[in-house]
């Protein structure tokens, strides 16, 4: 059994067991603090009964007009707690927050090589909206998929009409 709760500043001193995974994008402390200050409702943590951090999700709301959306900045689960449905639970939480904010869709970026995550996102209803060439600065040979899921505000599902050509990272809005 796990508990979902808001991520706090103190958690920044306890999350190494999750963040040291090679598939997890790790940011500087100021980046995490910015998210906590601006979008605290989008920053949730899964905690074990013993108090160990099992995983977390961090996101934000951005865009204007029919591009207003929830964005998943990071979702990571400790290797010890994978395949338990925690990632899907955290994604559902972020989608619910985005619904309350009247967002049209939720999007995220994932490495094209991360087939496990891509499969999970597809099971959750996400589509590959576009390929972003050379997205990852630490690995310029790795592209990303921009995956999206339409929310109820996007009645005509315009946000999930996939592009038929790749884009460069500087073209991503």
TrEMBL record:
Q: What is this protein called?
A: Uncharacterized protein
């Amino acid at each position: 059994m796990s508990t979902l709760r808001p991520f706090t500043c103190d958690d920044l001193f306890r999350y190494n067991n999750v963040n040291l995974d090679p598939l997890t994008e790790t940011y500087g402390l100021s980046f995490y603090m910015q998210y906590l200050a601006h979008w605290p409702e989008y920053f949730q943590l899964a905690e074990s009964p013993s108090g160990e951090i099992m995983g977390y999700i961090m996101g934000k709301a951005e865009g204007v007009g029919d591009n207003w959306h929830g964005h998943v900045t990071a979702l990571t689960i400790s290797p010890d707690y994978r395949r338990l449905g925690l990632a899907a639970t955290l994604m559902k939480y972020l989608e619910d927050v985005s619904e309350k904010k009247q967002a049209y869709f939720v999007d995220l970026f994932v490495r094209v090589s991360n087939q496990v995550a891509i499969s999970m996102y597809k099971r959750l209803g996400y589509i590959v909206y576009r390929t972003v060439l050379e997205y990852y600065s630490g690995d310029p040979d790795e592209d990303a998929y921009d995956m999206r899921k339409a929310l109820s505000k996007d009645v005509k599902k315009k946000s999930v009409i996939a592009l038929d050509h790749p884009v460069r990272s500087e073209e991503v809005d």
